[in-house]
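Database export, one record per block. Field names are fixed; values are copied verbatim from the stored entry.
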Amino acid sequence: MRIPPRDTVSLYATAAKNTLGYFGLRTHPPAVLWVITKRCFYSCIHCDSWKDSTPIDEAIVAKIAGELAAAQTKLVAISGGEPLMIKSLPDVVAKLKSAGKIVSLNTNGHLLEENVEWIVDAGVNNIQISIDADTPELHDRIRQREGSFETILRAIDRLKNARRDGLPRISICGVAMKENLGRLAGFVDRFKAVADDVELQPLHETPDWLMTAGCEPLAPRDESLLRDDLRNVMARDPRFATPYYEAFTRFLFDRDSMKHMATDHCLPRIFNTLVIQGNGDAYICRFPLQHNVVESGLSAAWNSSERWQLYRMLSRDGCSDPCWSRCNIHSSSQPGRAMKSALGRVRK
């Protein structure tokens, strides 16, 4: 998700206040990734969210929304599973927007068309839509839902026609996997004309977090094809010529070598982002904090000793099971390295 300059300044100002935590002061998370449910009605071959049958507790949803509205948090990214399955979502978003939050929704797009009116009226800032191929045939096969591709594109058209002042911004995110190998450049070309932004992230399995398990993994013989595909992407669109995309092949084929590189790039994001699961459990990235925001409040989780212990552990040891998820990776390693140094010198 790329944030417009005005919102970026506001978010960075909130992040600046968060650095006071280095000196033992209580702060609030500048950004929250709220995994509002892990349930989803798609049966994508690369994701097992469809196996989740945890009931959606609207009372817990309302409690978490209240905690977020009352906090000094600036950005709330609502993800899943499929968040548009939450019946109270229009009320949740309205509450967050009335509290001045930047709100982003991550969706598979299937229910988007019927929700366009309230999304626009509420002033949602960003919609990220998951699409995994540049053709209907391949996308629908990956999603295991006939007609999915056309349903999503029809919803995007309606949203573009309805939005006001360019809001919400529309981004499309695809997962690079064996099934679409060799087609990433075509994917980017296809959707640059459809959305405001196009992003990619590599498929990988991260315990207790990404819930990906169902498709054939990339093999060593696929490395050169993926590298060539990414080179084509970066040559056609300079926005992709970043360390994040340059490290795709290293991550997928030499992941063990990245435990320190990953933390260099992720610390600025995870230092400023709290993850809240549907039941209220609080995480930093995929690491549980042993706090629940429904039971003890958002501030207790964010200002916990467990959070700072995690940062120190990652700074010292790196991440033993690194991810390369777009939501966690800063484009430069320099801020993360500076933060490692500061953690060693300033924080208790």
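Remark 1: The chain has one domain: 5-345.
Remark 2: The longest helix spans residues 148-162.
End of record.
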